[in-house]
Design the sequence.
């Protein structure tokens, strides 16, 4: 809505020239003075808030999500996705508390790629390579926004170091953390979001 007020000085005093909104004009050539002037001023004062309200509605928008570029996972998981997630969470319960040990492959200590290899072998019946570098070449790459339970998620904490875990759901992944051992972490924390690299999907047999 556009509001235009003009002041004419050729009639011996200020006048209300025009009030335009939409396709029509409202009033013209009414001297602002006495009762008539007060009526015009009241009319204008009543319309100004309406004009501002119209402008405000035009620019109203919903705020952005916390991390729109990091939103992950299908909105409606399938029954196989739910089954995969439950298997993975059970594996986490079996491994929880195991410390990280570079080169380790068992409950006395395990590194991130060996943990992924062990879970896939023992819980999902699938053989995977031993190293993070080799794991990054299996399956097919998938966008972060389409992650499903079982997808491998990769990170680059440093230019020379790679880290891998297994996606669960709702931005959570299970992995063998360097400092905390086998844990579940959230991918949308500042650390993991900053170092996220890629994701790979392995074809599951169920």
Sequence:
């Amino acid at each position: 809505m556009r509001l235009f007020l003009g002041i004419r000085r050729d009639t011996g005093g200020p006048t209300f020239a025009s009030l335009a909104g939409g396709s029509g004009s409202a009033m013209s050539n009414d001297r602002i003075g006495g009762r008539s002037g007060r009526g015009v001023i009241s009319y204008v004062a009543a319309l100004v808030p309406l004009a501002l309200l119209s402008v405000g509605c035009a620019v109203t928008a919903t705020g952005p999500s916390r991390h729109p570029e990091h939103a992950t996972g299908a909105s409606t998981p399938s029954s196989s996705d739910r089954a995969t997630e439950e298997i993975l969470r059970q594996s986490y319960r079996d491994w929880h508390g195991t410390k990280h040990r570079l080169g380790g492959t068992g409950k006395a200590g395990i590194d991130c790629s060996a943990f992924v290899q062990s879970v896939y072998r023992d819980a999902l019946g699938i053989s995977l390579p031993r190293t993070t570098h080799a794991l990054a070449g299996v399956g097919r790459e998938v966008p972060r926004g389409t992650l499903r339970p079982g997808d491998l998620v990769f990170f680059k904490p440093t230019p020379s170091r790679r880290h891998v875990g297994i996606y669960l759901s709702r931005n959570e992944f299970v992995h063998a953390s360097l400092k905390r051992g086998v844990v579940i972490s959230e991918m949308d924390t500042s650390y993991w979001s900053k170092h996220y690299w890629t994701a790979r999907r392995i074809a599951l047999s169920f």
Summary: The radius of gyration is 32 Å. The first strand starts at residue 15 and ends at 16. Residues 103 and 168 are 24 Å apart (CA to CA). The helical segments are 34-59, 79-95, 112-124, 132-135, 190-195.
